[in-house]
Amino acid sequence: MKLWTGRFSKEADKITNDFNSSIATDSRMYRDDIEGSIAHATMLGMTGIISPEDADIIISELKKIESEITDGSLKIDMEAEDIHTFVEGELTRRVGDPGKRLHTARSRNDQVALDIRLNLVKECESIDELLVKLISVLADMGEKYAYAVMSGYTHLQRAQPVTFGHYMLAYAEMFLRDRERLADCKKRMSRSPLGSCALAGTTYPIDREKTAELLGLDGICHNSLDGVSDRDFIIEMSACLSVISVHLSRFSEEIILWCSHEFKYIELDDAFSTGSSIMPQKKNPDIAELVRGKSGRVFGDLMTILTVMKGIPLAYNKDMQEDKDCIFDAVDTVKACLTAFIPMIETMTVKTENLRKAAAGGFINATDCADYLVSKGLPFRDAYKITGGIVAACIEKNTTLEELPLEEYGKFSDKFDDGIYEAINLDNCVKGRTSLGGPAPENVLREAERVKKLLNDER
Q1: 276 is catalytic
Q2: Residues 434, 443: contact at Cβ < 8 Å?
Q3: pTM of the model
């Protein structure tokens, strides 16, 4: 039975019912719907709007309904209009008139606004737990590979020496900021719209603050129009998930490059790779490729909710039913990506000898060569030009800065002596980059410890 019967003289067409129905999407919110209804019934009983006896009957039966849906003994009727209709209809079927009193001083408008907030608060927490696991893995890798010299890149060209540990901690910083964004989003999400009713509140003496307190929320939505029509929190969470997806996609791109034959920096575990149906030699980074690809879905979900909301006048409009499809898809996609990505990173083999070999051949110590000349009194621009000429000579002779004889250095400047070889040693190049945030191993170890402490202090 529809909650809005009475005004209409005939049943809606089946096409209308099917098109209007949202239960295929919002049935996942059954716990949230029941949690909100229990808090609402408790408040109604406390304020005397309904009798305490009726409130107790409602609460007791709602708990049974939740338990039965969870254990599978009660199947959600997918022909129902939405989860709110199903739960209220099942409650009324079981307890009669007390069940009909549950919806006093409440509309489906503020009910659904509450359900989605409660659901997404929990999802923020679930995603945060996954981010913590990923950051923890990256901190461990930062510590383990603090001394593993590799090329840092700009424009995908070898640029300056860093370490693999420093590289991993760069992503740890990105995901730490993702946690901050989610936590900040959760603050604005944790508000109760219950009591806004359809749009204009109610004449009943309800206690909105008590309902919010019972639900463990931080407060109420202070304007009834805003309470039922606000979906900013969904837009904001979609944006947060999109940024997480950007970081996962960038990381995936590096993994894909690094495990190629041309790089050979890493090897993915067999459990997190796939093969080819025709080429027996292939070992494909499908998880990383899928994570990279699925970022597009999350970005699309953000564009969907932005587009849905951009032209809607206050207050509730049926367009807003579309909010759940896109945010649930974004949530599920990001959770699936993180769940697969974490063990893939944790089990991959880092080929430190290949990292070092590639670093040695890329002239990534050229800046250190120039800095050496600066230490001998040359202006940096002069030192830069001289070093550029030396690099060109090395390329012509198919050699490296480390292998170039001292007499060849002397052709470019009389400032060179045996100290140049110590200055351009890759280990020394990295060790010397002690500026705060730099890749010196002592910095990397300290930063890995800082990240671990940040995570441990929250436990």
Answers
A1: yes
A2: yes
A3: 0.92
